[in-house]
Amino acid sequence: MAVIDTLLSQMLDKGGSDLHLTVGLPPKIRTSGNLVPLTDTPVTPEKMAVLLEEICPPARWKQFLEKKDLDLAHEIPGLARFRGNYLYNHWGMAAVFRQIPSKIMTFDELKLPQSLKKLCDLQEGLVVVTGPTGSGKSTTLAAMIDYINATSARHIITIEDPIEFVHKNQKSVIVHREVGEHTESFAAALKGAMRHDPDILLLGEMRELETIKLALSCASMGMLVFGTLHTNNAPKTIDRIINAFPADEQNQVRVMLSGCLAGVVAQLLCKRVPKGRCAVHEILLRHEALPNTIRSGQIANIRGLIESGGADGMITMDQSLQARVADGSIDAKEAYMKAANKALFAHALKPGDLDGAH
């Protein structure tokens, strides 16, 4: 058993989701949103190198020493899988490990909005699941792929860095490819995927310009493409995709995106009452006015489209927060901190709620 497995096991025993390792500090875990020390002993530079190298294949370790960054998956057989990120900071090597639940949670277990099933039933188009790091995007996407896998016969290719959730074939055939292990880059894997006759592509991240460009091409060619971005809402997501391109290509991208964007799901995690986390969503679905809104660059009007599309299953983040406050899942202070329109929740705050808040 690797030395780091002891720390990861202790983290799981304490109900933690992430393990943070930094030279000079004790190992810390994230539990219910807060970072707490796991032990009292600071990690030395020598101990850090041993912890990280022991579970890393030699070729990937060499890559980390050269590039100073590395993503990898690690498994404790019979217990759990983890997504690890190795990095260098001011004090030397550091790492963060996040637990990947071994069981893929279903739509119903996650209490996901039913309107997301509409996106799973599509035959083509680009669906972007977005939110800050650690907001549960991967978990939501895994549930959506699981739903497709259980209900329809499709050929699904996932391209991830690293592979997180491993799906067993049910009605669909699912091929998992890991960047760095099975292919050299997202772009190379995407180019290959175009020739592998997929119905659905899942992209772990749409980081580089070339990846975004290829994702748009695949969606325009009649495939259903799921991708993730780090933005907080639907309008910002559309802006981010367009602004990733040089100015002289942006008009062309608007036209392309207006033709293939099938939906945006923005997700945030809130502190649940009394403990735990609960997800809130902003959902933009296809709407007859959406293509023209994107083509003409009137991104600010998208908020209005979502607000008026409630009957179709669309919802704004603030409406989602209001629903969670109303059913007692989260308190008004948490909703206020996450809301775009804070006035909606200001009246429900208790005295002292905002002391020390930013």
Overall form = globular
Largest sheet: 7 strands, mixed
Please identify the top-level CATH class of the largest domain.
Alpha Beta
Oligomer: single chain
The CATH superfamily of the largest domain is P-loop containing nucleotide triphosphate hydrolases
Distance between the termini: 43 Å
What is the tally of beta strands? 13
- The arrangement of helices and strands along the chain is HEEEHHEEEHHEHEEHEHEHHEEHHHHH
Give the low-confidence spans. none
Strand content: 15-25%
| CATH topology description of the largest domain | Rossmann fold
Q: Round the mean pLDDT to the nearest integer and report it.
A: 93
What's the helix count? Answer: 15
How many whole angstroms does the radius of gyration measure?
21 Å
Main sheet strand line-up: 9-8-10-11-7-12-13
- Overall number of structural domains: 2
Describe this protein's structure.
Helices cover 36% and strands 25% of the residues. It has 358 residues and is an alpha/beta fold. It folds into 2 domains: 3-100, Beta-Lactamase, CATH 3.30.450; 107-315, Rossmann fold (3-Layer(aba) Sandwich), CATH 3.40.50.300. Strands 9-8-10-11-7-12-13 form a 7-stranded mixed β-sheet, sandwiched between helices. A hairpin with a 2-residue loop joins strand 2 (28-31) and strand 3 (34-37). The longest helix has 15 residues, at 137-151. It is globular, with a radius of gyration of 21 Å. It starts with a helix and ends in a 12-residue tail after the last helix.
